[in-house]
Fold this sequence. Notes:
Layout: H1 5-25, H2 37-55, H3 59-88, H4 95-117
Helix pairs in contact: 1-2, 1-3, 2-3, 3-4
Amino acid sequence: MNESPRETWAAYLGGAVTIIPAMIVSGFMPKWNMLPFTGWLAIATVGAGIAGAIATPRWARGALAGALAGAGVLLGMSLYVALRAALTGNNTFLKIELGIGAVLGAAPGMLLFTHWARVKPGEDDEEESG
């Protein structure tokens, strides 16, 4: 997929504001856990919403899709860790397992961004209201 520099930097921002809170909530950075779950969820949701708005000229659509993806990453990773630990009784995780939870959680928001908010080649780059 051809990404513009704007989309690339927005992806880095979105990754930082979602992965770090998701790791904290999931218990992989316990000394950093200084907020309640809803605080970390708000940081991931608002941060990814801002990243989504930066990524596309359709900023309102990008913000909504980004917020959905950000909340999904945090919820997906924390649910995956909780379910997997409950089912297996093992608290040792591979890095790829955390990625599975994050990708599954982010998928609805990323699909929404790709098909609704992202400007495709040949389309008008101007912001559409609504």
